[in-house]
């Protein structure tokens, strides 16, 4: 019968689909794990069969599908073989339509009646996987005492009674079962492989990006969509890697749940890959019904997983989800108290994508997160990851998603208010020691990223400072350490060479001045530290007010930069000792693999300006079509740090800066004047008089309206999330290496 690794291309002629003896060798019990199958079936052979005997590959796929209903070992080997072969089918454009075509007679024994409405192979494969994920005694506990013939059983059972874990919409927690977990994991790996066709298409911003596999699987055609969505979500959010509360427990018992949780998280984020900018995302009103999913709303997106996610509405469900994600995100931080006392999880990037999707698709969840200080249990781990990854080129994607989440949260007033809670959890981090609030922690970490992160992070500076501006009106009392950090940033960003070296750099100065304005106008009384820091550094404001605008001065400033291309001044900021027990942020190990990412949209595309009215509601200030950007800005006030909005100069900039023949941008006098005039800085003696006056009664103008730049969904970020998410999944699936060495097109694989 031949060895299991003798693939059909050894045969000169196509093998008959009905030649069972030949095909049975593939389901033989020789392979006992997915790793075995990967070892037995080399890549070169799969490609050879694809090129030379395509009919054999087609038959194999049909056989696998047909086998997926019989013996368990058989099902698992079918599943492993498909996981092995699918990426090679996806990498060849000629084969891509194969799964969506109905091939008459392929893989059927000759005598069967031809089915009029034969399903495409992709659909029947996905439905078979869905059925198998709720197969009694295989992936779920059987509820019956007597064993009925399981074949008819699977089609009649109500899978909602077999949800894998208690949590959202399900109260019963089934007995843990190692075998079921392993079987679920193998099937989810196959499901993820089916969805991974997306990796073999180049990133195209306009490609609406609907993945046909995901679209079908998450449609009403899949009768298990609701229980499976609930099973995946609950499995992830209920997982506790600590080892049931006993330190070091994970060293005694191997945790077979983690691989399943990881696979569940990956499948979940891929099924939720849905561009909310191009579709109407369901808005949820305050009504409550008796079910876990709110069904009082318009139907919402066709993708049922996105639909269900957007309609979760019960407080206890939100609590369960938030606590679960916060527990898992905090897990790497726990490591630092008692090293190795708990199992360290590795799937925090998938969790961050999941948290993003929850906030983006379910506004009620977002408001719930911000309603209490529980949001800080998400904030602290994110700041920890940002600080830890700032020097590591292979973790640029992690830096971006962390900043995107904070940008999304900062668009809500409650986030700024929550930041005033004192920061007492002492997670060892490589930052200066300070006593203060969560706002201080955020500012200190942002300062660290900007001054000692690597160059590739510069596109994030706008986002970081937009977050600071968004929360600034609510910050009651900054510590001296944080106040000094903000002033140091102003100092670094207002050096002439930095201002003149790129078209957008002056925005950073505008953002900082806007934050100072907000704090002085709305929170002056508690912020003596900041006021004192501003007085101490008044020369910085003086230099800004007297910024040279003549061509020779601009030229000279840029010459100075060429001699010393240091990204940002490290001096002038008294660092102070780092926290005890912390390790410095390390660069990537040489040779670390990373995947490329598409560029993210600029901050003006990423956010929408809104004005906060007195009752706290937001009014959009986005200009209509041709109206000039300056119309929406508040009028200039006679404030010491008066400035207009950075957005004003964005239109003129392109016009006023000259692009030389080489396409290099270069600053001109007109360009500098166009934004310098909007800084509105007055004479420093006035600043001093104003700030040293103990009381501000009669001195301050009527507070200007608070401007918030809220994140807005757009297809640019949707594309970024898609490439980031698949890049993470590609790199994390190394055992077995499902996609390694296949010709993926969505991103490039690079070595650090």
Structural summary, described in words:
Among the domains are: 13-106, no CATH class; 119-141 and 158-277 and 300-361 and 712-751, no CATH class. It contains 32 helices and seven strands. The protein has helices at residues 20-27, 34-40, 43-52, 54-67, 72-90, 121-132, 150-156, 178-195, 212-217, 225-238, 249-252, 257-271, 304-311, 315-334, 348-361, 363-371, 376-389, 396-410, 413-418, 438-452, 461-471, 480-493, 496-500, 506-522, 528-536, 538-545, 551-563, 603-606, 649-656, 669-679, 684-692, 715-732, and strands at 593-595, 607-612, 618-620, 658-659, 665-666, 706-711, 749-751. The strands form three sheets. A three-stranded antiparallel β-sheet has the order 3-2-6. It has a two-stranded antiparallel sheet with strand order 1-7. Strands 4-5 form a two-stranded antiparallel sheet. Strand 4 (658-659) and strand 5 form a beta hairpin. The two termini are 47 Å apart. Mean pLDDT is 78; it is low at 1-12, 105-114, 280-290 and 624-655.
The percentage helix is 40-55%
For the residues shown, what is the average pLDDT?
Answer: 78
Structural class: mainly alpha
- How far apart, in Å, are the first and last alpha carbons? 47 Å
Contiguous uncertain segments of 5+ residues? 1-12, 105-114, 280-290, 624-655
Number of helices: 32
Largest beta-sheet details: 3 strands, antiparallel
**How large a portion of the residues is in β-strands, by DSSP E?**
under 5%
Major β-sheet strand ordering: 3-2-6
- Give me the count of strands: 7
Round the Cα radius of gyration to an integer and report it: 29 Å
Shape: elongated
GO cellular component, one term: membrane
Protein name: HID1 domain containing
Pfam families: Hid1
InterPro entries: Hid-1/Ecm30 (IPR026705)
């Amino acid at each position: 019968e031949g060895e299991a690794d003798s693939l059909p291309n050894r045969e000169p002629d196509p093998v008959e689909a009905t030649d069972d003896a030949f095909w049975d060798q593939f389901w033989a019990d020789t392979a006992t794990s997915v790793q075995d199958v990967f070892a037995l079936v080399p890549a070169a052979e799969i490609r050879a069969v694809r090129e030379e005997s395509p009919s054999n590959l087609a038959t194999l796929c049909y056989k696998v599908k047909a086998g997926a209903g019989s013996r368990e070992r058989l099902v698992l080997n079918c599943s492993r073989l498909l996981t092995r072969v699918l990426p090679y089918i996806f990498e060849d454009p000629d084969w891509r339509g194969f799964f969506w075509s109905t091939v008459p007679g392929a893989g059927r024994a000759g005598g069967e009646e031809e089915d009029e409405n034969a399903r495409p192979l992709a659909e029947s494969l996905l439905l078979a996987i869905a059925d198998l994920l709720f197969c009694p005694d295989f992936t779920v506990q059987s509820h019956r005492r007597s064993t009925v013939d399981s074949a008819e059983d699977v089609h009649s059972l109500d899978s909602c009674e077999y949800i894998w874990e208690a949590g959202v919409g399900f109260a019963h927690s089934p007995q843990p079962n190692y075998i079921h977990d392993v079987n679920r994991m193998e099937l989810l790996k196959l499901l993820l492989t089916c969805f991974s066709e997306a990796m073999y298409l180049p990133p195209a911003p306009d490609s609406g990006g609907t993945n046909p596999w995901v679209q079908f699987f998450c449609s009403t055609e899949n009768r298990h969509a609701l229980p499976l969505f609930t099973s995946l979500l609950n499995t992830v959010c209920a997982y506790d890697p600590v080892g049931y509360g006993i330190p070091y427990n994970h060293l005694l018992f191997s945790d077979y749940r983690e691989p399943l949780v990881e696979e569940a998280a990956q499948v979940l984020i891929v099924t939720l890959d849905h561009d909310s900018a191009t579709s109407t995302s369901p808005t949820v009103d305050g009504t409550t019904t008796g079910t876990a999913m709110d069904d009082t709303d318009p139907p919402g997106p066709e993708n049922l997983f996105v639909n269900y996610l957007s309609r979760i509405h019960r407080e206890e469900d939100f609590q369960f989800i938030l606590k679960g994600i916060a527990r898992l995100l905090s897990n790497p931080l726990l490591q630092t108290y008692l090293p190795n006392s708990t199992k360290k999880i590795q799937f925090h990037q998938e969790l961050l994508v999941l948290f993003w999707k929850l906030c983006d698709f379910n506004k009620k969840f977002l408001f719930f997160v911000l309603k209490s200080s529980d949001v800080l249990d998400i904030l602290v781990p994110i700041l920890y990851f940002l600080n830890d990854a700032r020097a590591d080129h292979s973790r640029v994607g992690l830096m971006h998603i962390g900043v995107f989440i904070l940008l999304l949260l900062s668009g809500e007033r409650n986030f700024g208010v929550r930041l005033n809670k004192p920061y007492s959890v002492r997670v060892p981090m490589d930052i200066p020691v300070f006593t203060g609030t969560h706002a201080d922690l955020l500012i200190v970490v942002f300062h660290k990223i900007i001054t000692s992160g690597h160059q590739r992070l510069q596109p994030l500076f706008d986002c970081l400072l937009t977050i600071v501006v968004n929360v600034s009106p609510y910050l009651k009392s900054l510590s001296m350490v944080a106040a000094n950090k903000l002033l140091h940033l102003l100092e670094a960003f207002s050096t002439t060479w930095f201002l003149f070296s790129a078209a957008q750099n002056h925005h950073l100065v505008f953002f900082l001045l806007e934050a100072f304005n907000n704090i002085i106008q709305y929170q002056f009384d508690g912020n003596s530290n900041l006021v004192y820091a501003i007085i101490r550094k008044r020369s910085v404001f003086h230099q800004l007010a007297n910024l040279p605008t003549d061509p020779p001065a601009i030229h000279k400033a840029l010459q100075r930069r060429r001699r010393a291309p240091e990204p940002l001044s490290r001096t002038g900021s008294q660092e102070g000792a780092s926290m005890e027990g912390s390790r410095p942020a390390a660069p990537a190990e040489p040779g670390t693999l990373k995947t490329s990412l598409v560029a993210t949209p600029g901050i003006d595309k990423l956010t929408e300006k809104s004005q906060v009215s007195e009752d706290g509601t937001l009014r959009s200030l986005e200009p209509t079509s041709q109206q000039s950007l300056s119309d929406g800005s508040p009028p200039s006030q006679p404030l010491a740090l008066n400035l207009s909005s950075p957005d004003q100069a964005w239109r003129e900039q392109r016009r006023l800066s000259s692009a030389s023949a080489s396409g290099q941008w270069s600053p001109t006098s007109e360009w500098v004047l166009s934004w310098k005039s909007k800084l509105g800085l007055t004479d420093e003696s006035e600043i001093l008089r104003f700030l040293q006056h103990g009381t501000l009664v009669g001195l301050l103008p009527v507070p200007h309206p608070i401007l918030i730049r809220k994140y807005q969904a757009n297809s640019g970020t949707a594309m970024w999330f898609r490439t980031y998410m698949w890049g993470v999944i590609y790199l994390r699936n190394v055992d077995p290496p499902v996609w390694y060495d296949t010709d993926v097109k969505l991103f490039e694989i690079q070595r650090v």
